[in-house]
Design a protein that fits this description.
Blueprint: H1 7-16, E1 18-23, H2 27-42, H3 50-53, H4 61-68, H5 70-80, E2 84-94, E3 102-105, E4 118-124, E5 135-138, E6 148-150, E7 162-164, E8 174-175, E9 182-186, E10 191-194, E11 203-212, E12 224-229, E13 237-238, H6 248-274
Parallel strand pairs: 12-13
Antiparallel strand pairs: 1-9, 2-11, 2-12, 3-10, 4-9, 4-11, 5-8, 5-10, 6-7
Amino acid sequence: MPKRLTDAEIARFRADGLLFPLRALPEAEIAERRAALEAIEAARAGRIPPTLNAKIHLLLPWAWSLVHAPAIVDPVEDLLGPDILCWGTSFIIKNPRADRYVTWHQDATHWRLTGVRAVTAWLAFTPSTPENGGVRMLPGTNHTVLEHRDNGDARNMLGRREEVVASVDEAEAVDVTLAPGEMSLHDPLIVHGSNANMSDGRRIGFAIRYIAGDIGQRAGLRNSATLVRGRDHGLFDLETAPEADFHPAALRRHARALRQGIDVIFKGDAVSAADGGNVSDPG
């Protein structure tokens, strides 16, 4: 029996690749998390460096707790099954009146996984609306792996500035509007993007990438992941909870994990070219 989602919601996710809004945390608790995040930013010249933001749950005990929170993981288990890994986390932040945006893309483009049985939980720390650059998604586009290219625009927030080559009918897009403490769940193949933040407030989200426990990296590549729930299938080096915020031991482990992940991505480019450019086996 499902832990959190109804059979109808599970069927809708399978068809559309998207569910929202789901309440994950009370607004008072998410306000505390936002204050903690902004205190960290204030101590680091107003931003978290990208090298710390990737897999940031390995550096902050409260972010580690979010990754394991039952209100977030229970619906993920309904979609992925009992064995769950966290493959990555990051804060996705748009400051007010900035021109940064996200092109139409599929998350799984550079993941190099043996399958795409995965779910991203996008947790809103602030309201996420069309006005402040909230995520837009194209329901039903989660059934096909699409070709991507570099769009060459430095304002594109994606690490490789990727975008789908195919034309997109934006009239079919759904605005994923969320209140603080609410989350969306989306399939890694759903086509999505977001516009610039034209409001006077920040838009802050926390993206948690979950994968089924029996999914690994392609071509025998080895990466690290966090066992969130269930059984370890031995396909990843398991990550460890941080002792304290930016603890020296946690920073050392985090640096190793990032090097491992980067190695997978760039070796994966050679693997992808050798097998005809497939980004991942839909499985």
